[in-house]
Amino acid sequence: MVFDPAPSQRRGPRLPHGRAADLALAGVVFTVVALGSVQSFWDEGERSGPVLALAALLLVQACGVLYFRRRHPVAVGWTVLVLTGTFYSLRFDGPLVIALIVALYTVAATGRMRAAVALVSVVVFGVGTVSVLGSEDLTGLAVFLLSGWLVAVVALGYVRYSRLAHAREVERRAATEERLRIARELHDVIGHHISLINVQAGAALHRLRKDPAKAAAQSEEALAAVKDSSKAALRELRATLGVLRQADEAAPLAPAGGLDRLGELVRAAERAGIAVRTRTEGAKRTLSTEVGLAAYRITQESLTNVARHAHATAVTVRLRYGDRDLLVEVEDDGNGTAAHGGAGTTGPSTGSGLGGMRERARALGGELIAGPRPGGGFAVQARIPYGPYVPGQPDGPQVSRENGAGRRP
After folding, report:
1. How far apart are CA 327 and CA 387, in angstroms?
2. HSE-up of 18 (CA within 13 Å, CB side)?
3. What's the pLDDT tens digit per position in 21-46?
């Protein structure tokens, strides 16, 4: 086992960041430019003192203003351009163009492409004009090479900006998907058990009002079911909230749902007065955590909708293990109205429960359809591929959409 020391115990140089990094960069650029310009200042000994002082001041300012490059990139870019142009107009040599390159790269790397193009255009126009006027130091080839370098710097800055923007977008989408996943989990966990508690409490209250003398035993059974459902709700809620825990906190108190816990859903529905029959077709196989959880939650939400909306007395839960995907079917003998799960026969879902089930299936490359059955009642059919979803590849057998919820293919 490899021991990974705590951050405070790790040894090694730490690179500066933030304003310290800006100050370090400005210092490095100044050092390089100053060393490269010493010869120019030395050779120009016949220059007057004020001219030498002005050139030195321009050099210091052009490098020092880079400290503010990330907070005010465009302003720094134009400032460095003016200072650099003035420095070279005094006929001093030196690598002060490095400061201009750093400022130009920063402008492009922060996404200010119009400002970057304007800066490059001004530099190329100015240098080209000097070359045309007959400067011995600037030839056409030198202007061409300088233009190429400046364009390359802008391109590199834009690539940097694009990569950071893409990384931020990926992070934002991941955070959004995680929030939606957590919201879907909380809805499925709480909605299922609270619906059963509501049904049991309503039944007990109805019995008490109808015949208080004979309702004691039946109410006791209903209260026991309420207790079991609330206990299960708390257990699954703690497990779901476990995804929000810190790294050093305890693990969830209960495992994630899967088809191995299908019996719990059946018993809870039966306590609500619904007869549940389960059927398994095909060779049973071990499912991945994602597929098992999706099948479990879809079955759970379907049974919740039956207890809440359908006024059904019997439900059939069918699991068919195909060669490439799992087919989950939940059919009831209720009223089959559009209020069941918040969707009609063909219209889009307006209820978060049915919409959440569709999202679960689609997230794994499958599909879910739901609607009234031709012979009465309501049916939910979900097809979930076993393997990872790869866009563009053919999935398993399709679920027929004929006659409302359709029939098994």
Report:
1. 14
2. 1
3. 888 888 898 899 888 887 777 765 56
Query: Are 351 and 304 a contacting pair, CB within 8 Å?
Result: no
What is the arithmetic mean of pLDDT over 290-302?
A: 88
Q: Is pLDDT of 340 > 60?
A: no
Whole-number pLDDT of residue 280: 92
The arrangement of strands across the sheet holding 367-372 comes to 275-281, 314-321, 325-332, 378-385, 367-372
Least confident of 74-78, 112-116, 264-268, 345-349: 345-349
Residue in this structure with the two tokens 């400067």, named with its chain if needed: 135
Question: What are phi and psi for residue 170, nearest 5 degrees?
Answer: -65, -45
**Residue partners of 57: CB distance under 8 A and separation at least 6:** none
Give Cβ neighbours of residue 265 (< 8 Å, ≥ 6 apart): 192, 276, 296, 299, 300, 303
Domains of the chain plus CATH, in order, are 13-138 (no CATH), 258-409 (3.30.565.10)
- With 0-12 CB in 10 A as exposed, 13-18 as middle and 19+ as buried, what is 230? middle
Secondary structure, 3-state, 283-336: CCCCCCHHHHHHHHHHHHHHHHHHHHHHCCCEEEEEEEECCCEEEEEEEECCCC
Which of 405, 242, 233, 236 has the alpha carbon at shortest distance from 332?
Answer: 405
Instruction: Output the pTM of the full model.
Output: 0.47
Would the pLDDT of 10 be above 90? no
Q: Which of 148, 149, 186 is nearest to 301 (CA)?
A: 186
Maximum CA pair distance of the chain?
118
Closest of 218, 313, 332 to residue 275, by C-alpha: 313
Q: What is d(CA 406, CA 379) in angstroms, rounded to the nearest whole number?
A: 8
Which runs of consecutive H residues, i.e. helices, occur in 90-139? Answer: 97-109, 113-132
pLDDT at 216: 63
H or E stretch covering 368: strand 367-372
